[in-house]
Structure prediction request, 323 residues.
Amino acid sequence: MKQETVNSEQLTAKAPLRGTQSFVGVMVDVWKRPALTGIEIAWRWLAWLPMVAVLAVLLGGLGFGVSLHPEVLSSFSLFRPVQGIAALDLFFGGLHPLVGPIARWWWVVLGLVWLVAASVGRTANLRRLDAGLVPRRLDFWLLGVLRNLSLLLVFLLWGAGCRWVIEAMVLQPASRGEDANLVVAFALIVSATLVLFVVWCTVSWVLQLAPLLAMARNEGVGASLRDALRVGPLRGKLIEINLVMGIVRVSLVVLALVFSACPLPFETVETQGFLTCWWIGVAIFYVVASDYFHVVRSAVYLRLMRAYEIAPETMSPRTEAAS
Prediction:
């Protein structure tokens, strides 16, 4: 128990000069305490597995089965973009009557279960990081709802933008008998994706910090959001951490895709069982690494927060930290 307290102080009491200056040190501290990552993984699996099992039973009861036929795959070509889009529209159009009625309520229930599990699991994890935090599970849940709704809005905005680009650069020229402008379409989609990614990483730190302030100061949703917007010099450090963590998450996705594709050149000599096991292993690697870095971000936020005095109007560096 004594060692646990020492480790917790090491995670939260040191004051880095820059947002990412002690990032590697925090990673090492979290790595030495695998129970933190274990709790993060456990609550996620406890939330996901029952709901996935329920969905599988429901779809199985409907006799649901979808196969992506070779003719659909062959429609995906840069030289035939309109046919590819039409094939996708046909595929998802046939999928909607089967999945739509279930998905409408399943996603809502899954979201509620996920947020309840997150409020309990992450509260437990944060309390292991810093025993001085006060559990505020209802406020944690409400702030989680707000954050997920904001993220959903970003995805809807991204989807609407992609739809507009495809309509303007591919479908409309095709309807006039002109060539589709694929170069501009891809350039706009990639640029818009990068812009949204940077904007989200720049502003979402508020929704990451607010639950910590609610637990540290034992205050409600409105007060924690207000105080999160009044962090003074801490703002730049939090934005820096959020941008780094966003890049790390994207890097993990890229690594997972690369590792998933590694056996494909040898698929003529590999068995389907080996490929399945390989892909399951890559998925487990991604999940564990993603949860680990989520704990690291919480630990870095706590360290920065404890390195600065929490005042009603602003956060200023502690005198002993500055000295």
